[in-house]
Each structure stands twice: as structure tokens, then as C-alpha cells.
């Protein structure tokens, strides 16, 4: 139900359940977690997530599995999704969701857990849980405000409406739109940063990720600490030397 392939410096994780619009059963969520763990052991520079077919990235949770559960099962299911998706927050390299169609509910929550989102012009996204008398449970209420702001996030969650690709781009929910094949567009986007040193990329991601969690003065101290660490890397010495010598730097991820 989940395929993981390596293509050079990239890992491609594909939800492969097209007959169910790549819906997230609990088994699929566990498979996603296992695939992320496997990819973490590879020598890669970016991770791309997508769904099989042209219709859906992921249509959300498998609704049939949500009926008739106990209170403890409901809590465990939410914590499973949150725990697996959080693996992308701490993943060693940036991740890109290649949204090739519908991304609703848990599907959008999975995409929002990625570092970036590249969407097809035909993509449609949203958090429709309110229409079932529910609310998002895999991180949607927390990640969406961080991407689009509190008021807009509340409007999206409380109405459960569908957002087209152009609006998703305009409000910052999507990073870029693809002119053609969305996976190829995600690979092209990855090429824009995969040539840089991994230590600097990791430190930069950490600094940006922590910006919304602390007051500005504390965030500035964090930035100073992380930028100092970046200066101490061999890649930084190479980058500065290459600039002075007017040549392209040869980063070695050290």
C-alpha cells in the first residue's frame, strides 16, 4: 500500500491505494512510518511524497475504520497519525509533498507535515472533518495556522470547504504549482536546494521551524547559536573560500 523507491539523491514515497483514492487506513499510516524510517537510513538529500494515479494524493482517513471504536482506540488512532507525521518534522533532509489531486483531511495533514508542498493545478485540498461532526486529529489544527495564520485556518477548519490550487498557493498553503507532472516538478524544486551542504540545510530548517514556538528575543538567540554552529563547519569554510576565489563551492556535508 506504500511504495518506497530511491532515485539518485532522492527518495520517493508513494501511497499506492488508488482504488480507495489512497485513503489512510491505520495500516497505511504504519507503512508510511516504516518507509520514512527506512529512508532515514539512505544517503539522500530530499524525500518526495505522492499518491498513485491522477485523481488523489490522499483522500483522507479510511472512514470505515473510524466507526464503532472505543474512546481509547480513538485516542490511539489520533496519536498514531500525529506520531508518524511528526517523523517528517525531524527527518534529516527536507520533504516535499507532490499533491497530484485531492488532499483532504488526513491527506492534507500529511502534506502539511512535509517541509514543502508542490501541487498540480487540478489539486483540491481541505479539512472537511467538521462535516462529519469531527475535527482534524493528525495535526491539522496545529500546522494549518502556522502556514496560513490563525483566522484563515479557523475559517478553513470550521467551514470544511474545498480549496483549489490557485487559492492554496495564494494563502501559502502550497509552496508552488506544477506546470506539468507534479512529481517531476517536485524533483526540479528539490534540485534547487539539494546541492547545498546538509549541515547548513539542517541548521536552517531548525532555526525556521523554531521561530513560531518562542518569543522573538529567544528566537534571535537560537538563530545566533545555530548560525555560529554553521560557521564552524567545513562546508562554511569552503563556501566562503569559493566566494572569494569566484568559483562554485564543493560542499562535502561536513
UniProtKB/TrEMBL annotation:
GO terms for molecular function: enoyl-CoA hydratase activity. Pfam families: ECH_1 (PF00378). The keyword Metal-binding does not apply. Transmembrane segments: none annotated. Keywords: Lyase. It is an enzyme of class 4 (lyase). It comes from the Bacteria. Its EC number is 4.2.1.17. InterPro entries: ClpP/crotonase-like_dom_sf, Enoyl-CoA_hydra/iso, Enoyl-CoA_hydra_C. Belongs to the enoyl-CoA hydratase/isomerase family. This is Enoyl-CoA hydratase.
Amino acid at each position: 500500500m506504500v511504495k518506497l523507491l530511491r532515485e539518485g539523491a532522492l527518495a520517493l514515497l508513494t501511497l499506492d491505494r488508488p482504488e480507495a483514492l489512497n485513503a489512510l487506513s491505520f495500516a497505511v499510516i504504519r507503512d508510511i512510518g516504516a518507509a520514512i524510517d527506512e529512508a532515514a537510513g539512505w544517503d539522500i538529500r530530499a524525500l518526495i511524497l505522492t499518491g498513485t494515479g491522477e485523481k488523489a494524493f490522499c483522500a483522507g482517513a479510511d472512514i470505515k475504520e473510524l466507526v464503532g471504536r472505543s474512546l481509547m482506540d480513538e485516542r490511539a488512532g489520533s496519536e498514531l497519525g500525529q506520531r508518524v507525521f511528526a517523523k517528517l518534522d525531524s527527518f534529516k533532509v527536507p520533504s516535499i509533498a507532490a499533491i497530484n489531486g485531492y488532499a483532504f483531511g488526513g491527506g492534507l495533514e500529511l502534506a502539511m507535515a512535509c517541509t514543502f508542498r508542490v501541487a498540480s493545478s487540478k489539486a483540491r485540498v481541505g479539512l472537511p472533518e467538521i462535516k462529519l461532526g469531527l475535527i482534524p486529529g493528525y495535526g491539522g489544527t496545529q500546522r494549518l495556522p502556522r502556514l496560513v495564520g490563525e483566522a484563515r485556518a479557523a475559517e478553513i477548519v470550521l467551514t470544511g470547504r474545498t480549496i483549489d490550487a490557485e487559492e492554496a498557493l495564494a494563502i501559502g498553503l502550497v509552496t508552488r504549482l506544477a506546470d506539468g507532472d507534479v512529481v517531476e516538478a517536485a524533483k526540479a524544486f528539490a534540485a534547487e536546494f539539494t546541492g547545498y551542504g546538509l549541515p547548513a540545510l539542517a541548521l536552517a530548517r531548525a532555526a525556521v521551524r523554531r521561530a513560531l514556538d518562542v518569543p522573538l528575543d529567544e528566537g534571535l538567540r537560537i538563530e545566533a547559536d545555530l548560525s555560529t554552529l554553521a560557521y564552524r563547519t567545513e562546508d562554511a569554510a569552503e563556501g566562503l573560500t569559493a566566494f572569494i576565489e569566484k568559483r562554485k563551492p564543493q560542499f562535502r556535508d561536513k
